From TrEMBL:
InterPro entries for the chain: CML2, Formyl_rcpt-rel, GPCR_Rhodpsn, GPCR_Rhodpsn_7TM
Family statement: Belongs to the chemokine-like receptor (CMKLR) family.
Mode of membrane association: Multi-pass membrane protein
CDD domains: 7tmA_GPR1
A Pfam family assignment: 7tm_1
Subcellular location: Cell membrane
Name of protein: Chemerin-like receptor 2
Main localization category: membrane
UniProt keyword annotations, A-Z: Cell membrane, Disulfide bond, G-protein coupled receptor, Glycoprotein, Membrane, Receptor, Transducer, Transmembrane, Transmembrane helix
Domain (G-protein coupled receptors family 1 profile): residue spans on this chain: 55-304
Source domain of life: Eukaryota
Membrane spanning stretches: 36-62, 74-94, 114-133, 154-175, 212-233, 245-265, 285-307
Length: 355
């Protein structure tokens, strides 16, 4: 049993840096540096949760229940849903990191938490890709857009995106596992317990699939769409007057600023199987890039408010309507109470009956 545990531990160290954050062999300076990285990443996770939950809930409320259903509102509704579901599970990961990488929640939550994180990443980038393609077709090929850009077709695309994102996140449900040692439980990728070559192969395949499908292909698609929009739309006034162009461009830019370091360090992490030369850089870079990626889940609602004048107008109108309805209900309730008190004071029989 002890030999098996040592084997698992050795293989685990090849593709995860959880065990190396507070290595006993590390000198004081390195331990202090990793400790700072540990707490900075925790701050990023907490910031994403605190800002993201109310922000995405607001977007879901307005786009899903208050505003008229359009193709565009459906795109942003599902983008907010993906971020919101991920953020609901984020406290589990925050607790995991805060407890010095001890996972007390069991193997099924270990699998579910990792699956939700992968689902959010793929769903977000796929919806951003769909939004960019939709904007390109709507502006450059309006006849084609008018013919096929319907709510029914949008729902078909949305179902396809969620199924594809679930499929891409599926390996987390299979490979994610827990490992107990030294009175701690780790949640990690158990690619294989004994075959190191198979472990390396699976790690490489899953990492490159994640990078290509979740980063390179969407980056290329969105880049082409926006370059075509910039070059083909000759009149700048048309480009600026586009209702959602700048908002979508800002959301896409934020996604790639937040996720680019994560994917770069994921590729860099593959070298750990062959050389430990960059251990220290990866120890600091992976948690920070992960925190930056998580932060993207709270940025979209902020960008909607800061950039989109249409969203601001809808938001103000919706808030004003809610306040008006609330005040009207309070006023009606107060008026009814006053009328009841007046009628009771004028009619002694009502007072006697109440007593």
């Amino acid at each position: 049993m002890e030999d098996l545990e040592e084997t698992l531990l050795g293989e685990f160290e090849n593709y995860s840096y959880v065990l190396e954050y507070y290595s006993p062999e590390a000198d004081l300076e390195e331990s202090a540096r990793l400790g700072v990285v540990h707490w900075v990443s925790l701050v990023l996770y907490c910031l994403a949760f605190v800002l993201g939950i109310p922000g995405n809930a607001t977007v879901i409320w307005f786009t899903g229940f208050k505003w008229r259903k359009t193709v565009t509102t459906l795109w942003f509704l599902n983008l907010a849903i993906a971020d919101f579901i991920f953020l609901l599970f984020l406290p589990l990961y925050i607790s995991y990191v805060a407890m010095n990488f001890h996972w007390p929640f069991g193997i099924w939550l270990c699998k579910a938490n990792s699956f939700i994180a992968q689902l959010n990443m793929f769903a977000s980038v796929l919806f951003l890709t769909v939004i960019s393609l939709d904007r390109y077709i709507h502006l450059i090929h309006p006849v084609l857009s008018h013919r096929y850009r319907t709510l029914r077709n949008a729902l078909i695309v949305i179902i396809f995106v969620w199924l594809l994102a679930s499929l891409m996140g599926g390996p987390a449900l299979y490979f994610r596992d827990t490992l107990e040692f030294d009175n701690q439980t780790l949640c990690y990728n158990n690619f294989h317990e004994h075959d190191s070559d198979l472990t390396v192969m699976r790690h490489h395949v899953l990492t490159w699939v994640k990078v290509i499908v979740g980063y390179l292909f969407p980056l290329l698609t969105m880049g082409i769409c926006y370059l075509c929009l910039i070059f083909k739309v000759k009149k700048r006034s048309i480009l600026i007057s586009s209702k959602h162009f700048w908002t979508i461009l800002a959301v896409v830019t934020a996604f790639f600023i937040c996720w680019t370091p994560y994917h770069l360090f994921s590729i860099w992490e593959l070298t750990i199987h062959h050389s430990g030369y960059f251990h220290q850089v990866l120890q600091a870079g992976i948690p920070l890039s992960t925190g930056l990626a998580f932060l993207n889940s709270c940025l979209n609602p902020i960008l909607y408010v800061l950039i989109s004048k249409k969203f601001q107008a809808h938001f103000r109108a919706s808030v004003a309507e809610i306040l008006k309805n609330t005040l009207w209900e309070v006023s009606c309730s107060s008026t009814a109470s006053d009328q009841l008190r007046n009628s009771e004071s004028k009619n002694p029989c009502l007072l006697e009956t109440a007593q």
